[in-house]
Amino acid sequence: MFTGIVEELGEVTAVENLGDASRFRLRGPVVTDGAKHGDSIAVNGVCLTVVEHEGDEFTADVMAETLDRSSLGALTAGSRVNLERPTAVGARLGGHIVQGHVDGTGAVLERRPSENWEIIKISLPADLARYVVEKGSITVDGISLTVVDAGPDYFTVSLIPTTLALTTLGLKQPGDPVNLEVDIVAKYVERLLASGQGAGK
Questions:
Q1: Correct CATH for 104-184 of 2.40.30.20, 3.30.450.40, 1.20.120.80, 2.60.40.10
Q2: Percentages (nearest 5) of helix, strand, coil residues in the chain
């Protein structure tokens, strides 16, 4: 489990095409400290497994399913990425419950800068819109954020200077894709309510 509190802005150093998969080599001195084979690291909100670890770099294999459902397929050598290790048991939950299982992708539609913050408008797939509510939580490229405005096919988030400086959202431009993970609690509530309706028939 992750919390959506990005630990560092890492970098893709190589991408190898394996046909029905890709192997990524990524640099991140913070998340590789103490890393070992089989550990999980979230890359732009996608939970990946460490295959190899050397120095401040690690490699991870990404299957076609993940490439199709996320924006990882658009990454190339030199791309910057948000990195986070799983939260430790007993640690503070600084963001919200994040699984690292991307539900879909959106795209940056608009950036509205202000003196002390910036509003970013992001497109929202129709099948995810029902899970996104004003003042609710959403994960964008692995970043735990609070929804400012929720429309039928978009949402907005307000970013402080720290988030802009330390994550990929400070670099994204209109048209750039982002990974989205909606609040898992909302999905469970929907499923439970549906089961209850069916049981009452």
A1: 2.40.30.20
A2: 20, 40, 40
pTM of the model: 0.90
Q: What CATH number does domain 8-84 carry, 3.30.565.10, 3.30.70.270, 3.30.465.10, 2.40.30.20?
A: 2.40.30.20
Q: What is the secondary structure of 20-70 as a DSSP string? A: SEEEEEEE-TTTTTT--TT-EEEETTEEEE--EEETTEEEEEEEHHHHHHS
Residues 142-191: tens digit of each pLDDT: 999 999 999 999 999 999 999 999 999 999 999 999 999 999 888 888 88
| Helices and strands of the chain, counted as H and E runs | 3, 13
